[in-house]
Specification:
The chain is 39% helix and 28% strand. The chain is α/β, with parallel strands linked by helices. It has one domain.
Length: 101
């Protein structure tokens, strides 16, 4: 929960957040629009076209080790290749990125 609160302070308002392992917390404690990188597939479903800011919040090391070659990592890499991804902040193992076309 503290990672969600921390990210909320940085996002500062409603946002679209792509995440993994934190989706249920975001859905319960925030009004953000959440896309779980395991269940949602931005490669095929696309990324919502909305004026809301878009972020990715992930444990990158975990994606690159435990989830290497699997859907969460593939979706993260697709977002990274298709959008400009800027590192906003890091806390514990999690990194918050903003994404833009």
């Amino acid at each position: 929960l503290k990672i969600v609160r921390w990210a909320q302070q940085i996002c500062d308002g409603p946002a679209i957040v792509f995440t993994f392992n934190l989706s249920q917390y975001f859905n319960h404690y925030t009004d953000d629009e959440i896309y779980d990188l395991f269940y949602n597939d931005p490669m095929h479903q696309g990324v919502p076209e909305t004026p809301l800011p878009k972020y990715v919040l992930v444990d990158t090391e975990n994606l690159n080790t435990q989830w290497r070659g699997r859907k969460p990592q593939k979706n993260f890499l697709w977002l990274q290749n298709e959008f400009t991804m800027r590192k906003e902040a890091t806390k514990e193992n999690y990194t918050l990125y903003s994404i833009a076309p």
